[in-house]
Amino acid sequence: MTGFDFSRLLHFWSQRWPDILGLIVEHIAVVAISLLIAMVVGVGIGMLVWNRPIPRSVVIAAAGVALTIPSLAMLALLIPTFGLGWTPTVIALVMYSLLPIVRNTVVGLREVPPAVMESATGMGMNQFSVLLRIQLPIAWPIILTGVRVAAQLTIGIAAIAAYVAGPGLGSYIFQGLSSLGSVNALNFALTGTLGVVILALLVDALFVTITRYTTSRGLRA
Amino acid sequence: MPKTPDTAIIQIARNTSGARIVLDHVTKSYANQPVAAVEDFSMTAEPGELIMFVGPSGCGKTTTMKMINRIIEPTSGSISIDGRDVLSLNPHELRRHIGYVIQQIGLFPHMTIAENIAVVPKLLGWSKNAIGDRIDELLTTVELNPRDFAHRYPKQLSGGQQQRVGVARALAADPPVMLMDEPFGATDPITREKLQAEFLRLQDSLGKTIIFVTHDFDEAVRLGDRIAVLSDRSQIEQFDTPANILASPANDYVASFIGHGAAIKRLTLIPVTDAVLGPVSESSGGPITVCDTDTLRDALDSLVLTGLAALTVVDEARRPIGSISVDRISAVLGADVATPTVQASRP
Ligand SMILES: Nc1ncnc2c1ncn2[C@@H]1O[C@H](COP(=O)(O)OP(=O)(O)OP(=O)(O)O)[C@@H](O)[C@H]1O
Ligand SMILES: [Mg+2]
């Protein structure tokens, strides 16, 4: 095993930066695609079940179970049906994202004060308009918080997806781990890990900005 | 796209200065409740009338009111507005023509004041310009400067200001019927009195048919054309003008609801000019005078305050037109007691 040498790490980066950049872009892409899908599906499910006690509990329990499956196991289970690469990765990430998004959607929609709901109905809005024009905008910051949690979760889990030949920084981490003892093993693992951490921080900051610009000023504290 | 509402609703909507509301043997039993919340309730509200529902907590005021805009569906009986059975109308379209103010106000927190007021006009497909004009007009009506307030959010308003916006929002599409559930409930007595005065002035010019729920009897006396005193299961104990209820309560229940000081409450309804004024010479003069637009209650207040036997009554130009004393005030009440069925008009 070679010891850590910072100048070697810099050298490693300068040699491989186009490669590293490509992995970062892939990582962002797979997380973004998964989050978009999870948001559409999760908010949709939330809108369907928020006021139905039994479906609501079932959906949230199911999403909770999905979250407890270890990511390696989840990915392995997806291989027989979906093969390797992007597809199983995206499916796994969507499954992990659903719990925070569905739960926060349900909580957000339910938290709209009854008086607000009643005056909306009393003014002649049908149930769908109330949901779309009153509840969803009021619940929006809470829903976005769910998406933000899902983003943190999936950035980390996406790194594991290299196990099923998925895209992203995980391939460096796995390459490092599988070649322990070789010259660049530590550099590979370190680059992948650092990339994931920095990405997570940047995405979190991005969400703070998005929340700020898409939430009505009337709802901000 | 809003679909075309049926003609019955259009007819109700055109009648912007008041519709006749008839409740006929209306009963509401909630599921799993042994007794009905509203039992066999019948009442007619004439066009332009301001009717107050007064009664203790839980007697069924809100339930009765909410059946008119179908927020709650009656178990049996029928309700009609201008002769149209509301149960046969599309509830969403119906509600766009019934102004609705709830106790908790329920402004939409994510919308500005202007957007809150615009909701129903938008649902009705008004043009942008018409909506903009209407917002300015209504905010001015409820004494909120449009330049200051139109683009604020509800949380940037005081409770009293929010309640005004709630009333403005309910008036937005100029509905013939208004349902108001303790609209001034959440305010301090001073703001409340101010809102009540503004509201009376507003109603004088609008002439809507209004059902107004309160458990404050004084508010009912102050605002109502007629008051329905309700007891459990929304039973009507008495339904009459404020003056008649104060002068001759139908039973002990109504009397206990009026509480102490019925005579003084009656005085708030009677203008000074209803008394037989004495000659100006009867008054000992002094700087304190009573204006001819004041009520007998105001006159009594000044008499007690000054300790004088009589005060000068002056007209708008502050010319003395007579004098008023406690005896002359009592005489007015005495006359009223003798003829309890006379319909007194609102002050
Ligand atoms: N959704 C409901 N389910 C069951 N019972 C109800 C429901 N809403 C009201 N009730 C009951 O019906 C009765 C009348 O209630 P309502 O809200 O009409 O009273 P209220 O006169 O408006 O009282 P308050 O002055 O406190 O607002 C009460 O006994 C109440 O407990
Ligand atoms: Mg009530």
What does this structure look like?
The complex is a heterodimer of chains A (about 220) and B (about 350). In chain A, about 80% of the residues lie in helices and about 0% in strands. Chain A is mostly helical and about 220 residues long. Chain A has one domain: MetI-like fold (Orthogonal Bundle). In chain A, helix 5 (about 115-120) packs across helix 6 (about 125-160). Chain A is elongated. The termini of chain A are far apart. With about 350 residues, chain B is α/β, with parallel strands linked by helices. Chain B contains 14 helices and 13 strands. Chain B has helices at about 5-15, 60-70, 90-95, 115-125, 130-140, 145-150, 160-170, 190-205, 215-225, 240-245, 250-260, 260-265, 295-305, 325-340, and strands at about 20-30, 40-45, 50-55, 75-80, 85, 100, 175-180, 210-215, 225-230, 235-240, 290, 310-315, 320-325. The longest helix of chain B has 18 residues, at about 190-205. Chain B is globular. The model of chain B is unreliable at about 335-345 (pLDDT under 50). The chains are: A mainly alpha (about 220), B alpha/beta (about 350). At the A-B interface, helix 5 and helix 6 of A face helix 3 and helix 4 of B. Magnesium ion (MG) binds near residues 61 and 62 of chain B.
